Amino acid sequence: MPGIRIADINVAGLTVGQVIPLKLPFGTYLPATLKQNSEGSAAILRIWNESGVGFDYVQVGGVDTGSVCAGGWYDIELDHDVQQINFTVSYILPNAPVSLLKSTYYLPGQTPPLRAILGNSPIGGAVVNLTANNLINQGNPAGTNMVQGSSSPAAGSIIINNDGSGSRSLISNGVTEVLESWTEGTGLTEAAVVYGASTDYQATNFFGEFNGYIKSLNGVATTQAQGGNGVPAGFTILLESHVTATSIQTLFNVTITQGGLYRFSGYITMGNNLAEPVTYKVAWQDLLYTGHTTTFIDNANQKPLNGANNIGPTDTIPLVTFTVLATAGGNLTVTYQDPAGTPNDFVSLYIEYLS
Questions:
Q1: What is the 3-state secondary structure (H, E, C) of 291-337?
Q2: Could you tell me if 336 and 217 lie in one domain?
Q3: Which has fewest Cβ within 10 Å: 15, 258, 292, 305?
Q4: Are residues 54 and 154 both part of a single domain?
């Protein structure tokens, strides 16, 4: 008599902990009084677990228990009087292409045929390769990191978050130096540029250029990397400010770490509906004198913008170039005020470190 096939059980959609009963064919193919053991031989239930589901099993009414791994083929020797085996889901591997639990019953004394050496056991299933045109991270809180490129897991050189924000940094001697950061919808923002753990400048809407190879801004900035001649390296900062308030506006305020010559230049485009006596001044700590020194910047007609000279509502006023000798540790500060009416002014400020 050949083995008795038992109906396949579809295990797709099961969850961990769910119990699947497999009833032996008593009352149909087998007499209800049949014992599983006869003359020292036991009945055999052969299992082909053609699925990604792993099971633990127990023989109901018997003592034997065991496990069937995903994709495993097993022969279970049945205990006396057992008519049902319960399979409990212990784990599930994803993407299995087959989801069937197959079995065949062999009477006591029957010898099951040899099992095949290799089947189509779907351990884990195939890896699905997709071509993505967009990288979108949904369902997580805003600001969740999506992309990070870095030599150190503690700080990313390039970070992109799921809300469109991000930053670009350098890691120097274990210190993260933020070069730029941005938030979706607000444009590029220079949050802070840090060299040797000291903030050299902070500005909004920053467009800058460093001329030459700067070896240090915390000590003496030189072009030593270009040949070791020690010529001071310069830098230029362009600040574009849109002024709409009548209060004093601080356009630039930084504690400098490198003393020397700093040159200021730029221009003002008035958008006020009235001619106004604007003020535009620079404050610094002079290298030769104690305390801070303040001066009003002049316009191209040599009239100081000190609140005594009106500027027309649509005038563009070039500023004279002004150079200061500033000491390290002091502040460089530039302020502007359009005191009345409806300011709608654009102030362009250039700051150069010369030597």
A1: CEEEEECEECCCCECECCCCECCCCEEEECCEEEEECCCCEEEEEEE
A2: yes
A3: 15
A4: no
Selection from 72, 55, 68 nearest residue 118 by Cα = 72
- Is 268 part of any domain? yes
CA distances from 182 to 1, 60, 155 (A): 77, 64, 17
By C-alpha distance, which of 190, 195, 179 is closest to 353? Answer: 195
Query: Are 95 and 125 within 8 A, CB to CB?
Result: yes
The residue with tokens 């502007």 is 336
pLDDT tens figures, 7-20? 899 999 999 999 99
Whose structure tokens read 């003393």?
Answer: 259
Query: What radius of gyration, in Å, describes the C-alpha atoms of the chain?
Result: 40
Same domain? For 292 and 334 the reply is yes
What is the tens place of the pLDDT at every residue in 108-125? Answer: 888 888 876 655 554 555
CA pair distance 307, 304, nearest whole angstrom: 8
Contacts of 30 (CB under 8 A, 6+ apart): 4, 24, 105, 107
Residues in the chain: 355
Amino acid symbol at 262: Y
Cα dihedral across residues 109, 110, 115, 119: positive or negative: negative
On whether both 67 and 143 belong to a single domain, the answer is no
Is there a single domain that holds both residue 14 and residue 152?
no
Question: Does pLDDT of 37 surpass 60?
Answer: yes
pLDDT tens track for 75-110: 998 887 788 899 999 999 988 888 999 999 988 888
